[in-house]
Design a protein that fits this description.
Number of strands: 13
Bound molecules: ligand SAJ
Distance between the termini: 52 Å
Strand order of the largest sheet: 3-2-1-4-5-6-7-8
Structural class: alpha/beta
Shape: globular
Helix content: 40-55%
Amino acid sequence: MINVIGLGYIGLPTALMLAVSGNTVVGTDKNENVVNSLKNNRLTFQEKGLNELFSRAVENGIQFTEEYMEADVYIISVPTPYDKVSKKVDTGYIEAAVHSVLKVCREDSVIVVESTISPGVIDKNIRPIVNEAGKAVKLAHAPERIIPGAMLYELEHNSRTIGADDRETGEKLKEIYGSFCKGEIVLTDIRSAEMSKVVENTFRDINIAFANELAKICRSDDLDVYEIIRIANKHPRVNILSPGPGVGGHCISVDPWFLVGDYPGLANIILAARKINDSMPEFVLERIREIMELRGINDISRVGLYGITYKENVDDVRESPTLQLLECMKKHLASPLLCYDPMVKESIVERQVFSLDEFLEKTDFVVIMVGHNEIIEYSDKLKDKIVLDTRRCLPGDAYHL
Ligand code: SAJ
């Protein structure tokens, strides 16, 4: 039996996949609302294909509870918030989950941490808890790699890493993950698994920072960055990513800080990349001001931000560039811009509207922060607007970064 602890963005899809692949699965979450919602067949977030997978998992007998169960394997996928000032990961939720697991698990159980952690956390923070409990359980780290928007496809097809205490534990977990994962499953030690996960996200952060830096350089010298990137990418070994209004999400904008914090003086490019990506919302604000001046717009209340999520077609707003931009305005004592996002149904920012038509009625100047399918489909509605397209997702004339 597998007990998946934490039924969020990662835990829920993983639990469902395991259940439809012939495993006995119980999903545990300490949040009563989440458990009740799932018990009543209501999903707690949206993701392509999740509804159908959920129904199949329920048919296969998956259960949801607030209790921790006696199980062969525990998969812990609880949040690992990070402190915005110290940039350190907060492992409190994992530690609490491990404490609870240790009360009910057997000596031969395996505890797998899937949550993103900074390198060394298992030995520094988790193993002492296990040792203190005096149970001979084995530990492992099997970081997830799935991308919101294509989670289920990627769960099945991506290769993955399992770092375990010993070969036997690794092989046992490989079989379990192999029940749904068609990609290669690489076995390694725990420290290497922790490090490689953070390195993967850091690689991407650095590459996005390069594109963003190029955008700034090209803007300063009146060159079209997209044209430069398009041409450079014809080179067989060059693949420059796209500039944008910043980097959000719970991983790419967070994980590189772990390396900066743990290896001060060594993590130099990594730190520079973080700073460049974090400076992008401010750069967007500068572009907004420039364009307002150019077009003689004085009324900031008629400028609106399209998109609040951290990227297109997901409902996740964690660390999103739009929220960073609003934060930046607040620092400068500016009143916030009007916002709209078709994926965000709850009120989360000050001046938010909930329909595209209302948003467009109230704006003359639209800043596209996220390229959701909606705005691409209805791009003709923008024909009388001044548009700053920070993602270059729309056809036709618009201002760019
Ligand atoms: N972005 C750009 N330009 C680009 C690509 C992305 O500005 O060319 C921005 C996005 O708009 C977004 C941010 O970067 O704000 C990150 O988006 P993403 O789509 O690149 O990645 P995430 O955060 O959704 O998912 C990442 C993935 N990691 C890598 O690609 C190395 C995913 O595989 C991980 O599982 C996930 O982080 C995680 O949980 O670690």
